[in-house]
Write a structure and sequence with these properties.
Blueprint (H helix, E strand, L loop, with lengths): L18 H4 L9 H8 L22 E4 L4 E6 L9 H15 L5 E6 L7 H9 L1 H9 L1 H11 L4
């Protein structure tokens, strides 16, 4: 385990879903809070905590451009040499690909200056062929799926 004693933060209050939010006939834009809600409960691969609780993902590091149909997530590993950073980025990417409308292009990257291998890991996460190959690995997709299963 890379980080035996991570700092834990309180979860952000759950967003209130309105009747309009549930109405599929009403066209609404996707915002950064909606994207954050899609990824906040991803389980960390090493700890029995979510990425939100570990402060790996934050609402203000979720960027949505509805006109360009892009979503960019910057995440912060708990320590600068986290060996799980690539897996965490892959989990975030998979969750968004499964949750967002297909028209959106998803970009997931480590926040600048927060990991010793950020350039190499960001290059891996941006490479569609490498991501596709990773998701064809039955063991790896099993681990990803375990991280994406909501707790309790």
């Amino acid at each position: 385990m890379d980080n035996a004693n991570p700092r834990i933060r309180a979860k952000v209050e759950t967003r209130v879903v309105t009747v309009t939010d549930k109405n599929d006939a009403v066209a609404d834009e996707i915002d950064n809070r909606e994207v954050f809600d899609m990824i906040r409960d991803i389980n960390d691969p090493e700890h029995p905590l979510t990425l939100e609780e570990l402060n790996v993902v934050e609402q203000d590091k979720c960027f949505v451009d509805n006109e360009e149909e892009t979503v960019r997530i910057e995440f912060t590993p708990t320590i600068p040499h986290c060996s799980m950073a690539t897996l965490i980025g892959l989990c975030i990417r998979v969750q968004l690909l499964r949750s967002l409308p297909e028209r959106f292009k998803v970009d997931v990257a480590i926040s600048q200056g927060t990991h010793a291998s950020e350039v190499a890991i960001n290059k891996q996460l941006a490479d569609k062929e490498r991501v596709a190959a990773a998701l064809e690995n039955s063991h790896l997709i099993e681990v990803v799926n375990q991280c994406l299963v909501a707790k309790g």
